[in-house]
Design a protein that fits this description.
This protein is α+β, with helices and mostly antiparallel strands. The chain contains five helices and eight strands. The chain binds zinc ion.
Amino acid sequence: MAKQEGRLADRIRKDDPIVKYGDPVLRQVAEKVKSVPDDMPEFVARMEDIMNAANGVGLAAPQLGLSIRVIVYDVGEGFQAIVNPVILKMSGEQLDPPEGCLSMPGLQGVVKRANVVVVKGFDEHGKPLRIRGEGYTARVIQHEVDHLDGILFIDRAEKETLHWVSADEEDEEEEEGAVNMTRE
Ligand SMILES: [Zn+2]
């Protein structure tokens, strides 16, 4: 697949790389990566750059227009990529902070998530990994894995909590450290 279509990173559009709500790719079930290709580290590095440039804490490949099962995240405890992530266990419950999505800038809402997840998959070099995520890390992993199944946070949000925030408000919240996933 990668061979036919060129290097993964080359398939990310140059301008405005993050696809927005309404693009059908966000509703597709993404394909499993059959064997981790040589250019996966390069692709993941691009994902990291794009996520950071957007002040995000997580990003899934479909958000860059590639319907493949790859997610990245960094909640301030180090960057992590997971290829073919599978959530093995979920436990507990959390409600805060409200979530947002880089594919739906400015929209936030409360989403009930498991407080702890155990996820398995591969790193960008094809090495198997298993991660236990708690709290915010668990929230981000669940949000990103949902993207691979065509599920968006608005599908899971408590409907009455969905609201728009201005860019200024988002910046303030970031400065206060109150949020979050806003720019997930
Ligand atoms: Zn998202």
